[in-house]
């Protein structure tokens, strides 16, 4: 957010502990013991079958009493209220999120409501949601509603890479799309307040850079390993970049245009567009921001090459909206420039019209790159 109050403190915040490895769920009792003995386990029915049963077994063996809260699918206020009631009536003493970004966002908000600590166990490396002290909430129809902020980050983030590797590779690629925005956004907002309402520290800038370095070095290799369900050093590194580095990097570094434009795209009422994942839409938002930043063609193409190599969309047609009208894009630009949006962290002249032109320019650059690659 723009630093109108002239805050001079730097702030960095993070989970207390991050654990990642191929046997993390099997060893979960050891890591979660400091949080309590009676968790509310929030997971949807599919994830419960894939990983929830083995987690429950591991915890029960460790003497935990697990209460199940079935996640309905949308990170909405209604869902948070419903799960809070279950938690309250069962007398749980901490909350576990097991699943994707929307599950962790819902569980973080539920734990905040119950004034309990939360452990986040992501089953995909598809978003930067697990580590942060905020949730992105949606209306029950999937349209972006608001950011919700909490007093504390999750106490523990535990990532079992033997579970992550069984998720479709598209999830890892989407996480790469989300993580690729981290450095592009953070480096553009060094003088604005981050999500901790302080200035970014040196380490948050370094985290954004490291995150990007890993993605360029290993992104494609990791997605290919994921296709073969192979847990390799490249795969582990990209899971860490998508989950830990991207999470710390965006929260303590700051967001800018890429995520604001993403938020705005969620409001287009188009079934095809809604099929795309958070990081896939963020990837296109990143191209828009690079255009706004006046990136050189060589720099733009460096990002687009990586995005393309892992199957991320770089044009509006690839985002499922080949016939989107200028009128619709103007309303996206208008929403991206809403007063509370992260786009205002950029310290430069901005308007709906400038953002509309950046979106058009991003699509043109993406199409040009596609035809260049096709002509090779
Ligand atoms: Zn994101």
Automatic annotation (TrEMBL):
Annotated keywords: Metal-binding, NAD, Oxidoreductase
Database matches in InterPro entries: ADH_Fe/GldA, ADH_Fe_CS, Glycerol_DH
UniProt keyword annotation of Transport present: no
Molecular-function annotations in GO: metal ion binding; oxidoreductase activity, acting on CH-OH group of donors
Keyword Metal-binding: yes
Domain Alcohol dehydrogenase iron-type/glycerol dehydrogenase GldA, residue spans: 15-161
Pfam families: Fe-ADH
Family per record: Belongs to the iron-containing alcohol dehydrogenase family.
PANTHER family attached to this UniProt entry: GLYCEROL DEHYDROGENASE (PTHR43616), GLYCEROL DEHYDROGENASE 1 (PTHR43616:SF5)
UniProt name for this protein: Glycerol dehydrogenase 1
Lineage: Eukaryota, Fungi, Dikarya, Basidiomycota, Agaricomycotina
